Amino acid sequence: MSWRRTVTGVPRLPEDVSREEVADLQRVAGVFKMADLQTICHNIHTDQDFLNPSIGTFLTDMTGAEMKRVFLNQPDYADIIFKVQGERLHTRVM
Questions:
Q1: Residue 90 class from Cβ within 10 Å (0-12 exposed, 13-18 middle, 19+ buried)?
Q2: CA distances (Å), 70 to each of 6, 42, 58, 74, in order?
Q3: Phi, psi of 15 (to 5 degrees)
Q4: Would you say the C-alpha torsion 12, 15, 21, 24 has a positive or negative sign?
Q5: Sign of dihedral through CA atoms 73, 78, 79, 80?
Q6: Residue 50, CA distances (Å) to 15, 22, 40, 56, 77 in order
Q7: Strand runs labelled E in 5-86
């Protein structure tokens, strides 16, 4: 099974965050190869931060899909088994 880093949501920056602090965050995001965070910072710098909630929604959807792939109907990791329409559905309690 392969694991990959998943991140959800968008950072909540203070209203008075400086451009320098956003630039620092963008540099750190680059070091850790967090492209979505770099894009969020870029959007803040270019006054396009209205786009950032869409990035957060996308990341949340991707995380949900990954959790479903990893944990849903995986007997080895099941904490509980539901019987749905005669079928067994293995799942994990989070």
A1: middle
A2: 12, 32, 18, 7
A3: -60, -35
A4: positive
A5: positive
A6: 14, 16, 10, 11, 39
A7: 80-84
* Other residues' Cβ atoms within 10 Å of the Cβ of residue 40: 25
CB 43 within 8 A of CB 49: yes
Domain boundaries, the chain: 6-51
* 93, HSE (Cβ side, Cα atoms, 13 Å): 4
Tokens at 59, concatenated? 């990341």
Nearest-angstrom CA–CA distance, 75 and 81: 9
Exposure pattern of 49-63 as b/e (b: 16+ CB <10 Å)? beebeebbeebeeee
pLDDT at 75: 86
Low-confidence ranges of the chain (pLDDT < 70): 1-8
Give the CA distances from residue 14 to residues 11, 18, 21, in Å, rounded to whole numbers and listed in that order: 10, 9, 11
